[in-house]
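FYI - complex with iron/sulfur cluster, inputs then prediction.
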Amino acid sequence: MLKYVNHDIVFQEFPDEVTLAVNLSQCPNACPGCHSMYLWGDEGERLSLSRLRAMAEAYAGEITCVALMGGDNDPESVLLILSELRRAMPGIRTGWYSGHASLPRCFDDYPAPDYVKIGPWREECGPLSSPSTNQRMYRCLPDGSRLDITERFWKKGLKSTL
Ligand code: SF4
């Protein structure tokens, strides 16, 4: 089950997108130096498709993308709710920030979100905007392939907060 604590409109987490970013709790990753420890606990409200859609529709005309930030406690639910949202709102792109080092085994069992970022926070490597980062941002293409677009964060100086 997914639970969310809060949401925000962000401009730098996904290239060229204005994104409704929903912060999920129950993070199991325990990255040393985590700047979002408030997301570790069993906090917030259950995130259903209708709740996510209501949030997205409240920003209709302002956002181009809806993203779930976290959700590694239940990746199947992340992929399911994002695919359902995209079916319900075809003009909106979707994204996922995972703190795992690799994609979950179930990733290919669901329609891929438009963007997926993987990799835990490692202070010595830096965020997505650092060329030494351990994190990767992929653009998922219609043919099922994934394009590594991490370099775009270096060129434009975009920053990630996870
Ligand atoms: S994935 Fe993000 S929220 Fe979770 S422990 Fe790592 S830095 Fe913190």
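The mean pLDDT is 95. The chain has one domain: 3-156.
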